[in-house]
TrEMBL record:
GO terms for molecular function: ATP binding; single-stranded DNA binding; single-stranded DNA helicase activity. GO terms for biological process: DNA replication. InterPro entries: AAA+_ATPase, MCM, MCM_dom, MCM_lid, MCM_OB, NA-bd_OB-fold, P-loop_NTPase, WH-like_DNA-bd_sf. Belongs to the MCM family. This is AAA family ATPase. It holds the Pfam family MCM_OB. Keywords: ATP-binding, Coiled coil, DNA replication, DNA-binding, Nucleotide-binding. GO terms for cellular component: MCM complex.
Length: 666
């Protein structure tokens, strides 16, 4: 009797008022044959007195259970009542602030889904037969553990076997959510918490709301779960009563009128790009860094919705190559700290899940699979810094292809099929595989990266550690000056972040004059090339467009002007001259970046391959090397170049070695 009174916490009059106020929700429930009715707090709050509000917040399960019973009786069908749209004043918590004091209480929290499991059946109660008396009874299972009966509630006996005869299941799914970037203060690591979804929250129609990388708002009850390893230590999780995607990202961080005034003043300064560039890693000096920092400043404000007409990304990807010890890692770490939404990953310690996403066994539910998001998914809409990109495995690099260009990751493994967003700018660094950068060799020969990854970067810069008395003295002076007084950047990190957020929202339009400059530049550069050399392709054309738009955004300009295009041209040509010059003819040759082979190398490959094929008629067991070299002299091909070409043909699989220094075409 006492238990019955404890459950009856809401009077019938109040329940009737809520029912009458929920006509739209009830009609939708009946029309769409749903399993639950979602009550909007804003519509029912006027009916709640202090006692009922306290019951909602502190005895949520009983509150909603009574609601569900009443609605089910009135509608003559089983109904699950849920609630949404609570104001933030009602126990809205950061994930890191959830404590044991919140156990069994209603809270609301936001996070980005990092892990999403399969939907699995969960036994909520089990039916037993007592062998001694023949009595049957149900036992509810709690904390994900099957409760074995020790006493028969029918006869009161404790002896004899209890035989399981039936069970009742519901669908269940596990999420792991991580604090969003706008809720993390300086120096904090994002906190995480497990969320359990049950019944209709796991329906197929909910699948798009629970993919990794999506930001969600959770309304739920905090519960405890025993840690399997340490029985005295409990884990907290949220038993969700409702979940909804949040169309809010780091760009929605509050910017005060005073902040906006400062931002506008900066934008109206003579050279806001240089001001922001000089605020990026102020401890790194040198002429090379001037262009790199300008490019990074533009990268930080790049991005936005893909163009429907050309379906092209707007994020800028940058690759920095160079000798060890020139500050690449320091630069990436600093940028990851000032970017409003970012992840920092080191290639040598990363895995494909660390970068993109993966499917793995569910260790919590002991069976099934979970979909886990990596850095590119979690930082979607922001920036990922990848240090030591060249140390990634082949499998991990392959997972980058789709993420960099299509800005999505497609997962199709086990029972999980999903497409995740990776609308992320990438700033990466890599070292030459022979220790030092050689200006006489092309980029593909010096970096352990495939051309298909290299050519997806909009800008590539090379940092070479060369003695330069004037530059070395300037760097030393700046470093020593920093020992005496603290060197502060022109803009502090907080204002810089807010400026980036503000600028990213700008969607500049193109003027006809700016478009004409892009067109003329592309056509003239293409027509100025030699017959067999291609200096630029449409991929670089799109890079110019992305960079020019970012230049307009950083000025907070509503239009892209001729100056923006000229800056984009300057940065692109600077980058291409660093890695796209053919050392044999000193011309721009985009094939070096696109395929790893220059146009002149391709001609040599073709000529040497033709020579081997012709000589193969006289040497069916394989053409000796000296015969190939002698024949090559007729075409003025240098001996060393021919040997290098043979190595490339072997590597590419066009020829094979049939004996000691004997070669045959495939």
């Amino acid at each position: 009797m006492d238990n019955a009174k404890e459950v009856e916490i809401l009077d019938v009059g109040f329940l009737g008022q809520i029912f009458d106020a929920s006509k739209e929700e009830i009609e939708k429930f009946i029309r769409e044959e749903e399993k639950s009715i979602i009550l909007d707090y804003e519509k029912i709050k006027s009916y709640l007195n202090n006692k009922q509000l306290d019951l909602l917040l502190n005895k949520t399960e009983k509150f909603l259970e009574q609601m569900s019973i009443y609605f089910s009786e009135r509608l003559d069908r089983k109904v699950k009542v849920r609630i949404k749209n609570l104001p933030e004043s009602l126990r809205y918590l950061r994930i890191r602030d959830i404590r044991s004091e919140h156990k069994d209480k209603l809270i609301q929290a936001e996070g980005i889904i990092k892990v999403s499991s399969e939907v699995r059946p969960f036994i909520i109660k089990t039916k037993y037969l007592h062998e001694d008396c023949g009595g049957e009874f149900w036992v509810e299972n709690k904390n994900f553990v099957i409760e074995k009966p020790k006493k028969c509630p029918v006869c009161g006996g404790t002896k004899g076997k209890f035989i399981e005869t039936d069970h009742e299941t519901i669908d269940i799914q596990r999420l792991l959510i991580e604090e969003p970037a706008d809720q993390i203060e300086k120096g904090e690591q994002p906190a995480q918490i497990t969320v359990i979804l049950k019944e209709d929250l796991c329906e197929p129609r909910m699948e798009r709301k629970t993919l990794p990388g999506i930001r969600v708002k959770i309304y739920g009850i905090v519960k405890e779960l025993k840690n399997s390893n340490l029985k005295a230590i409990l884990d907290l999780y949220i038993d969700a009563i409702y979940i909804e995607p949040v169309d809010k990202d780091v760009e929605d961080i509050s910017i005060s009128p005073e902040d906006e005034r400062k931002i506008r003043e900066l934008a109206n300064s003579t050279d806001v790009l240089s001001l922001i560039a000089n605020s990026v890693a102020p401890g790194l000096y040198g002429k090379h860094y001037e262009m790199i920092k300008k490019a990074i400043a533009l990268q930080l404000v790049s991005g936005g919705k893909r163009r429907k007409s050309v379906d092209e990304r707007k994020n800028i990807h940058i690759l920095i190559l160079g000798d060890p010890g020139v500050g690449k890692s320091k630069l990436l770490r600093y940028v990851s700290e000032i970017a409003p939404k970012s992840k920092y990953v080191v290639g040598i310690t990363s895995s494909s899940v660390g970068l993109t996403a993966s499917v793995r066994k569910d260790e919590i539910f002991k069976g099934g699979w979970v979909l886990e998001a990596g850095a590119l998914v979690l930082a979607s809409g922001g920036l990922v810094c990848i240090d030591e990109l060249d140390k990634l495995s082949t499998e991990e690099l392959q997972s980058l292809h789709e993420a960099m260009e299509q800005q999505t990751i497609t997962i199709d493994k086990a029972n999980i099929h999903a497409t995740l967003r990776t609308e992320t700018a990438i700033l990466a660094a890599a070292n030459p595989k022979f220790g030092r950068w050689d200006k006489m060799k092309n980029i593909v020969d010096q970096i352990d990266l495939p051309p298909t990854i290299i050519n997806r970067f909009d800008l590539i810069f090379v940092l070479v550690d060369e003695p330069n008395p004037q530059q070395d003295e300037a760097i030393v002076n700046e470093l020593l000056k920093g020992l005496k007084e603290e060197r502060k950047p022109p803009l502090d990190k907080d204002l810089l972040r807010k400026y980036i957020i503000y600028a990213k929202k700008i969607e500049p339009q193109w003027t006809n004059a700016a478009l004409d400059i892009v067109k003329d530049f592309y056509i003239k550069l293409r027509s100025s090339s030699g017959e067999d050399t291609i200096p630029i392709t449409t991929r670089q054309l799109m890079s110019i467009i992305r960079i020019a738009e970012a230049s307009a955004k950083i000025r907070l300009s509503p239009v892209v002007t001729e100056d923006d295009v000229n800056l984009a041209k300057e940065l692109l040509l600077y980058s291409l001259k660093e890695v796209g010059i053919n050392p044999e003819n000193n011309r721009l040759d985009i094939d070096i970046i696109m395929s790893g082979i220059s146009s002149t190398q391709r001609q040599k490959l073709s000529k040497v391959l033709d020579i081997i094929k012709d000589l193969q008629k006289d040497f069916p067991d394989g053409v000796p090397l000296n015969e190939i070299l002698n024949e090559s002299k007729k075409y003025n091909l240098e001996e060393e170049k021919v040997k290098e070409t043979i190595e490339k043909l072997l590597k590419e699989g066009y020829i094979y070695e049939s004996g000691d220094k004997k070669y045959k075409a495939v």
